[in-house]
User: Which sequence fits this backbone?
C-alpha cells in the first residue's frame, strides 16, 4: 500500500479507500487503516468521512500508523472543516471520557486548535459550534486552551452567555479548568459595555453575574462602577446586596440569600461528586492495583497496561511519556504503598519470563509497542531495586530481550540512570554478537532517514575491542557526514587506546605517502582529533612529529580538537607534560606569523592563553624551566620575560607557609633556632650546622683529633670515610635533634650504607611534621661525605650524589661534604693543595649541576691537626 501511495491517482485512491472506511478482519492491528488514512486524507477523503469512520484502536499497546493518523487528522484538516469536525465530535458518544488523554485526546486538541485559528482568520460560522463545544467541555469539567485574540474570544463568550441553560456554569468562564480562562479581569470594561448596550435579558443577566465574579474591593475604580451598576440592576440587588447593606434576619432577602446559598452549595456538591466519581472511577492508584492483580492472576497484558495507567498524573492534565523508562519516576509510583511497590518489583521478573511474544519488526520504525517497552522498564526496575534478582536472570532471557534493550537504550540517550548502564552492560556481555548486529541495523536505519548518529556515543560504557572494530569498520565502509563519522570514531576510541594508536599510526603513514589526497587528509584529521580527545599521552608523542613537519596539518588538527575539548578542557591537549606544553607553546608562537586569518582563531588564542597560564600557575622548578625554554625560543618576545617573573612569584606564593606565633617566639628567643618549610630551607640549616662543626674541629680543644688514629711511632693516620661519615652523623644528631634547632619538625638522621658493600657514605636527613589532621609531610636532603683522598673526588658530586643517591631517595636536594685532611701528617693525592681554592671549585660545580632538576650545595670542612 505504501508503494501505491507513492504514485497516488484517482483510480489508486479508489482501491485504497475501503481500507480507510470499512471494517477489515484481516487488518488485525489497524495498520492498513492507518496507512490508508494517511495516504488519502485530506485529498481523497473528506473530514466527515474520516471522523464518522474512526474506531477505537484494536491494539491499544501499539503506537503505529493508525494511532499516528488519528493524531494527524486535526493537523492536516483544512481550516474550513473545523466547524464540521466539532459537530461530528459532539455526536460521538463518550468522546470526552478520557480527554485530554485517551485514543482521541490529540485529535480533539488539534481540532480545537484549528477552530481557534479559523476564528482568528475571520470565520463567523465557527462561533456557534465552538461555543457549543466549549460548553460541553465545561459541563464535563474538562480542560481546554484558548488561543484567540480578545475580540474573537469575547464573541465566543457572548454566544455562551446567551444560553439560558448554561447559567449555573457561567462561573467557570472566569474560573475554568482551562489553561487560560475564556474571560478574565481584562474583560471588565467589555462586560460593563455589554451590560449597558445589550437588550437580551439573558445576556444582561449573565454579564451581571460575571461582573460580580470579576469584582474585587482593592480597585477603587471598579468599586465606583459596580456601585453605580448595583443601583439599577435587579439581579445584583437580589444576589449581592449583602456586600453593601446589612440584611435583617428572617427577611425575604435573607431567605432568598439562604435559598441561593443552598442552591450554590448543592450545585458545587454535584460538581464535586461528579469529579469524585470520575476520579474514583479512574483513579490511577486503583486502576494500577486492578491491573497488578490481573497480572498476578495470569493476565500477562496486565503488566504493560498497569504501567500505562501509572503514567497518568493526579491532576488528570498531565501524563508521562511512554519513553519514561524508569517506573519509579512515574506519577503513581510514590502514591503506592511499600508493599505494592515490592509486588510490582516482583511482577517485573515474572513479566520478563512470561511474555514470550517479543516482537522486533517494529523497531526503528515510526511505531512502538508498549508490551516491549514494558519489558525494558521491567529490566531497569530490577537493576535499580532488586540487583540480586537482576543478576540471576537466565542468559536465554537476555538473548530474547536484547533487541529491545539496545533500541530503548539508544532511544533514551542523555538519561544517566545507573540502572540503564547496568542493563546494556549485561545485555552486551551475554549477547555480544547479537547486540552488534542490532547496532548495525540501527546505524543502517538512521542513515536511511538522514538522521544523526549522536546516540552512538552513549555506548561508551560497553566499548571493547570487538565493538570498537565494528564501529571503525562501519566508519570506513560508509559515506558519512563528518559529524556521524566523528561519532563512530569517538566511541570506538573511548576505551581502546592501543586500537586508537594503531589506527591513527596506520593512516598517518598512508598520508605521508599521499600528502595531496584531500579525502585521506580529512579522514586523518578526524581520526587524529578523536585520538587526542579519547587517547593518552602516547597520542601526542605519535602526532607531534607530524604537527612540526606539516604546519597546516598541525593548526587544522589543533582547531578541530579544540572545538570539542575547549568546552570542557578534556583530552590529551589538556594533559600534556610540562616540557610538551612548552614545546607546543613555542611552536604556536613561532608559526603564528605564517598563518592566515582563518587559522588564527579564538580556539588557538584561547589555548595559548591556557598553556601560558597553566605553566605559570604550576609554580614548580620544572614549569619555570619550561617557561625559560619558551622565552629562549622566542628570543624574549611576546612578553615572555614577564611570564618568568610571574611563575617565580607563583613559586614563592606556593612555597610560603605562615609561621605559628609559638614557633616565632622560639626563633626570636633562641637565635640559633630555625623554621623549616621546605627541603631548601633544610639544606640551609645543614650548612649552618656544618659551620658549627667546623668551629669545633679547630677550636681551642679541637675535636679534629677524633678523626685521626695515633700510631705507635707517634705519627697520625686519618680515619676512613665511613668513620668520617659517622662522625658527621653524630654531630648532626646532637646539633639538630638533641638541641631542637628545628622548631617545627622532628629531624631524623640516618646512614644508608648497604650491608656488605662498605662504599655507601651518604646520610639521609629528614625533617618530619605531623599535621593536626594526621597527615604526615617531610622534607629531605641527602649528604654525600668524601675524604680528600677519594679517587673520584672531583666527579662524585655528579656521578654518585646527583646521578645515583638523589634518584634512589627520590630527593632533589643534596649536600656534597668533603673532609680536608691535607697537612703535615697526610699528603693528599688530590691535585688541589689549597683548601680555599678547592672550596671555590666545588661551589662552582654545585652551582652548575643545580641548573637541572636538583639543587646542590658543596661544603668543605677542615679536619687537619697540627
Assistant:
Amino acid at each position: 500500500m505504501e508503494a501505491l501511495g507513492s504514485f497516488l491517482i484517482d483510480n489508486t485512491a479508489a482501491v485504497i479507500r475501503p481500507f480507510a472506511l470499512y471494517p477489515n478482519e484481516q487488518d488485525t492491528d489497524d495498520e492498513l487503516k492507518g496507512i490508508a488514512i494517511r495516504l488519502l486524507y485530506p485529498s481523497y477523503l473528506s473530514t466527515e468521512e474520516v471522523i464518522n469512520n474512526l474506531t477505537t484502536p484494536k491494539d491499544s499497546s501499539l503506537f503505529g500508523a493508525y494511532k499516528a493518523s488519528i493524531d494527524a487528522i486535526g493537523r492536516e484538516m483544512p481550516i474550513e472543516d473545523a466547524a464540521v469536525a466539532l459537530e461530528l465530535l459532539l455526536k460521538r458518544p463518550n468522546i470526552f471520557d478520557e480527554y485530554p488523554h485517551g485514543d482521541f485526546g490529540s485529535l480533539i486538541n488539534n481540532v480545537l486548535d484549528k477552530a481557534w485559528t479559523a476564528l482568528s482568520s475571520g470565520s463567523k460560522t465557527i462561533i456557534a459550534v465552538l461555543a457549543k463545544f466549549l460548553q460541553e467541555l465545561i459541563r464535563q469539567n474538562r480542560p481546554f486552551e484558548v488561543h484567540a485574540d480578545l475580540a474573537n474570544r469575547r464573541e465566543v463568550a457572548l454566544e455562551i452567555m446567551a444560553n439560558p441553560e448554561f447559567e449555573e456554569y457561567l462561573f467557570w468562564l472566569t474560573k475554568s479548568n482551562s489553561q487560560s480562562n475564556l474571560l478574565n479581569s481584562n474583560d471588565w470594561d467589555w462586560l460593563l459595555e455589554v451590560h449597558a448596550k445589550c437588550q437580551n435579558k439573558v445576556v444582561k443577566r449573565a454579564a451581571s453575574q460575571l461582573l460580580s465574579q470579576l469584582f474585587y474591593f482593592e480597585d477603587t475604580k471598579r468599586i465606583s462602577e459596580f456601585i453605580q451598576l448595583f443601583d439599577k440592576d435587579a439581579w445584583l440587588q437580589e444576589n449581592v446586596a449583602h456586600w453593601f447593606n446589612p440584611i435583617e434576619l428572617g427577611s425575604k432577602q435573607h431567605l432568598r440569600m439562604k435559598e441561593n446559598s443552598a442552591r450554590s452549595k448543592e450545585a458545587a456538591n454535584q460538581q464535586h461528586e461528579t469529579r469524585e466519581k470520575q476520579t474514583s472511577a479512574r483513579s490511577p492508584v486503583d486502576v494500577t492495583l486492578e491491573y497488578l492483580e490481573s497480572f498476578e492472576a495470569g493476565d500477562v497484558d496486565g503488566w504493560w497496561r498497569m504501567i500505562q495507567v501509572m503514567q497518568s498524573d493526579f491532576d488528570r492534565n498531565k501524563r508521562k511519556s511512554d519513553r519514561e523508562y524508569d517506573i519509579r519516576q512515574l506519577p503513581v509510583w510514590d502514591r503506592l504503598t511499600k508493599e505494592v511497590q515490592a509486588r510490582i518489583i516482583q511482577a517485573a521478573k515474572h513479566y520478563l519470563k512470561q511474555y514470550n511474544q517479543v516482537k522486533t519488526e517494529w523497531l526503528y520504525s515510526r511505531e512502538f509497542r508498549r508490551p516491549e517497552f514494558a519489558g525494558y522498564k521491567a529490566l531497569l526496575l530490577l537493576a535499580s531495586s532488586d540487583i540480586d534478582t537482576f543478576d540471576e536472570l537466565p542468559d536465554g532471557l537476555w538473548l530474547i530481550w536484547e533487541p529491545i534493550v539496545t533500541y530503548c537504550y539508544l532511544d533514551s540517550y542523555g538519561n544517566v540512570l545507573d540502572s540503564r548502564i547496568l542493563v546494556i552492560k549485561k545485555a552486551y556481555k551475554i549477547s555480544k554478537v547479537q547486540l552488534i548486529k542490532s547496532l548495525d541495523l540501527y546505524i543502517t536505519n538512521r542513515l536511511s532517514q538522514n538522521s544523526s548518529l549522536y546516540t552512538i556515543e552513549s555506548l561508551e560504557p560497553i566499548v571493547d575491542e570487538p565493538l570498537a572494530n565494528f564501529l571503525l569498520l562501519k566508519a570506513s565502509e560508509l559515506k558519512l557526514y563528518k559529524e556521524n563519522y566523528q561519532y563512530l570514531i569517538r566511541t570506538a576510541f573511548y576505551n581502546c587506546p592501543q586500537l586508537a594508536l594503531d589506527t591513527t599510526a596506520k593512516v598517518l603513514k598512508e598520508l605521508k605517502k599521499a600528502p595531496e589526497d584531500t579525502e585521506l587528509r580529512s579522514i586523518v584529521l578526524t581520526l587524529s582529533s578523536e585520538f587526542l580527545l579519547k587517547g593518552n599521552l602516547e597520542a601526542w608523542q605519535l602526532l607531534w612529529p607530524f604537527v612540526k613537519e606539516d604546519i597546516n596539518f598541525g593548526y587544522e588538527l589543533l582547531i578541530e580538537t579544540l572545538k570539542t575539548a575547549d568546552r570542557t578542557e578534556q583530552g590529551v591537549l589538556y594533559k600534556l607534560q610540562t616540557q610538551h606544553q612548552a614545546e607546543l607553546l613555542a611552536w604556536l608562537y613561532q608559526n603564528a606569523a605564517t598563518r592566515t586569518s582563518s587559522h588564527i582563531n579564538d580556539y588557538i588564542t584561547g589555548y595559548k592563553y591556557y598553556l601560558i597560564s597553566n605553566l605559570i600557575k604550576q609554580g614548580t622548578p620544572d614549569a619555570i624551566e619550561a617557561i625559560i625554554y619558551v622565552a629562549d625560543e622566542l628570543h624574549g618576545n611576546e612578553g615572555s620575560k614577564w611570564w618568568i617573573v610571574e611563575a617565580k612569584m607563583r613559586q614563592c606564593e606556593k612555597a610560603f607557609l605562615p609561621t605559628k606565633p609559638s614557633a616565632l617566639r622560639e626563633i626570636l628567643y633562641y637565635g640559633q633556632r630555625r623554621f623549616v618549610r621546605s627541603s631548601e630551607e633544610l639544606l640551609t640549616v645543614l650548612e649552618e650546622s656544618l659551620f658549627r662543626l667546623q668551629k669545633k674541629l679547630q677550636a681551642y680543644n679541637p675535636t679534629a683529633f677524633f678523626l685521626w688514629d695515633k700510631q705507635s711511632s707517634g705519627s697520625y693516620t686519618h680515619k676512613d670515610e665511613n668513620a668520617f661519615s659517622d662522625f658527621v652523623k653524630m654531630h648532626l644528631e646532637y646539633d639538630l635533634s638533641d638541641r631542637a634547632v628545628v622548631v617545627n619538625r622532628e629531624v631524623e638522621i640516618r646512614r644508608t650504607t648497604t650491608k656488605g658493600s662498605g662504599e655507601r657514605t651518604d646520610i639521609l636527613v629528614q625533617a618530619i611534621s605531623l599535621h593536626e589532621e594526621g597527615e604526615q609531610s617531610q622534607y629531605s636532603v641527602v649528604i654525600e661525605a668524601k675524604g680528600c683522598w677519594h679517587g673520584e673526588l672531583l666527579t662524585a658530586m655528579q656521578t654518585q650524589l646527583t646521578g645515583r643517591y638523589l634518584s634512589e631517595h627520590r630527593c632533589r636536594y643534596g649536600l656534597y661534604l668533603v673532609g680536608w685532611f691535607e697537612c703535615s701528617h697526610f699528603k693528599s693525592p688530590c691535585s688541589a693543595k689549597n683548601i680555599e681554592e678547592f672550596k671555590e671549585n666545588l661551589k662552582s660545580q654545585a652551582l652548575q649541576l643545580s641548573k637541572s632538576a636538583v639543587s646542590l650545595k658543596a661544603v668543605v670542612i677542615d679536619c687537619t691537626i697540627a
User: Anything to note?
Assistant: Strands lie at 62-63, 368-369, 708-710, 716-718, 746-751, 762-770, 776-787, 813-820, 855-862. Residues 2-7, 754-758 have pLDDT under 50 and may be disordered.
